Amino acid sequence: MSQVEPAAAGADRAGEGAVMPHDEGVGGGGGGDVATTEAQVAVVVSTSGDERRVEYGDDADNEGEEAATVQGSKEGTEELLRKVLYSEEAAYKLYCDYGHRMGFSIRKGKQTYFTGTKRIRTKDYFCSKEGLKEGEKLTDANFNDPHTRTNCRAMVRFRVNDHGEWKVIRLVSDHNHNLARPEERHLLRSARSLIAGRSSSVDAMVYAGYQVHDGAPQLPAGSTSAANNVENSKQHLLLGYGTMAKMLAVGTGDLQSLVSYLKGRANEDGMFYWDVQLDQSGRMTNFFWRDGRSRIDYDCFSDVVVFDSTYRLSKQNLICAPFVGVNHHWQTTMYGCALLADESMSAFVWLFKSFLESMGNRHPQSIFTNLDQVVSKAIEDVFPDTCHRIAHWHIQKNAHSRLGAHNVSKVFNKMFTKCIQGCDSETEFEETWAQMIHEFKLQDNKWLKKLYKLKKKWCSALNKCTFDGGVEYEPQCDSMNNIFNSVADKSTSLSAIAVAVDKLSEDWREKELEEDTRCLQKPPACIIKHSDILNHAAKVYTHRIYKLFETDFLDGCGATKFKELPCEDNNTHQFEMTMQGRGSRVCTVRLNMSTMEISCSCSKFETMGLLCSHALKALTIKNICKIPESYILKRWTKDVKKWVFNPKQCESSYQECMNDDAAYCNYVMRYAYDLVTKSQGQEELRKALWETLENGEKELEKYLGNGKHDVPNQRMDLPVVLFLWSERHVFVARGSILK
């Protein structure tokens, strides 16, 4: 980065009164106020370190002057330099807004006073990473930590003239650290006060039935000009909700308002999907919908789906049935939702087929549901190759009503929970179940008899080869359980239910974005700083998944006894592992050093996709300092979406994409949708995308016009526009072509 002179240097002109820093108190005696000229001279330090004096004012001719900026907009810098303000608060908000546009947070700096007065003469504001904390050392690991100062020199200085006008006299625009991406900027600390300033106005307009995009340029009295530019990453959501609020009044009944709402969503979201089932009389009975982002998430995390049909809307006597899953941060993510008139076989079959169609007919590996025979039969019909599991939380919930006084017994609860998820083998499960039935005299309990017949659908010991993504573990099951109760209780119409479901989905996605930002800014903190395998895990896994991995690694290294067993093959090593404090349970680990294949009898990798403490202990014993590549499940990594959207990451996918028209269209449409959703909340990004599309279209037309249809294998640097028309939607994508 360029060398920038200190912000204080060269800022004051000779002949003006003495200046006292704010922390030294108010100056006394001596000089007085000195009049400033009408023209404003701003010192701008560019990314190359060059300093230039840019003159602005009533009598100044500024045409052709360019404000220097780094990774930001020329327009934003020009506005900052030209603006005339009349209060310290307005100056602070202006630089906050500028920082939000550029992607950095700010902090207040020192101020100086005219001698003998308490009137501010100059005021500095800095990038939040200005300076260094006492005793803190900069490293590659902490440099982009949002809480680490990097001695960044970016700053602005305002001067106040005799008329109380605040004008910029110095701007250092160069940063020595990464700036926040557009979709992350609303998370910046100094932007949050601006966001709060707008939310109440937006809410008022939404509830009043106004569209937000109509009202945004002319916010009600009391709104700040800076507020017009904040929280852009959420603006597309607010735009949609403004339209939604008006739609609720359209139509005379619940069904009509729901249909109006779904049609409106489809108009706003090119990949939005909704379906309705009609009865024999042509009446609408069942609805299903999902938005485009749900399709993108399902493409990444379709291995596990949780379907819950236990939420009933008391007013309409309908079932609200969500499809949810688990993302790479081990958070709940939405795949879609249904409103069902009944729990018939035909209703569930229709719903599952509609869900599959909306997801490109990609079947999940596992699907978890409540205990329902009709649902189970429908899954067998529609998902024949998917492992159907009954959710543990649903069994535990029903046990309270089915087992009466036995629920009070701690001994019974311990044995019952062990049968569900604490047994290591089928033999152990059978012994524990028989003991529980005998001790508590439950031989005639019909519910337990029915449950036992379905044991292969819920007993963990009998599903060691089935991936579940940890949906049955705490705290994940709490997130899955009763997530829609508040939605169902508070909503009074079908359209309001749909709005609430979509709002819940957006809340989850906001949490995902926060985790994505954390992962981008810094790696997770390793307890053992110089452990190669932990550093490898921190590099590839998301923060939450890394912490799960780290816990198992520490258990393996510090709390596991082992015994190596002889093997006939010199490349294979076998160990018996015993965890301290967990009884005499033994797990067997086999490690092949030539193929780097490893397996453990606990089967954690098969069910969770992470190596267990026993396997990590074996790797440590044999001085293996990296996670074998085949045991890094892509769905838990930071870059999972890059793998899904870029077929070149996988040779087989790339060949399929290039050789099959349908596969090619699918890949490009998903990529296009991702680009559109990233850009729609920011005006600058929209302009950039349109410019890219226009330039790409010209290139494409030029090649088509020259008759260059056979393209040799040489990559072209310019972006290309691909317009893909389907029966219902138009998709745009940015990519590269070969020439």
- Alpha-carbon distance between the two ends: 36 Å
* Main β sheet profile: 8 strands, mixed
Q: What structural class do helix, strand and pairing data support?
A: alpha+beta
**Integer-rounded radius of gyration:** 31 Å
How many helices does DSSP assign?
A: 24
**CATH structural fold name of the largest domain:** Nucleotidyltransferase, domain 5
Please identify the top-level CATH class of the largest domain: Alpha Beta
- What shape does the CA trace take? globular
Give the amount of beta strand, in percent: 15-25%
Indicate the CATH architecture of the largest domain.
Answer: 2-Layer Sandwich
Instruction: Report helical residue fraction.
Output: 25-40%
How confident overall, as mean pLDDT? 75
Overall domain count: 5
Strand segment tally: 21
Low-pLDDT sequence parts: 1-39, 55-72, 193-252, 709-739
Keywords: Metal-binding, Zinc, Zinc-finger
Organism: Panicum virgatum
Biased composition (Low complexity): 7-18, 34-47
Region (Disordered): 1-74
Question: Could you give a short description of this structure?
Answer:
The protein is an alpha+beta fold.
Care to describe what's here?
It comes from Panicum virgatum (Blackwell switchgrass). By secondary structure, the protein is of the alpha+beta class. Helix content is 39%, strand content 17%. Strands 8, 9, 10, 11, 12, 13, 14 and 15 form an eight-stranded mixed beta sheet that branches. A seven-stranded mixed beta sheet has the order 1-4-5-6-7-2-3, with helices on one face. The protein has a four-stranded antiparallel beta sheet with strand order 16-17-18-19. The longest helix has 28 residues, at 494-521. The two termini are 36 Å apart.
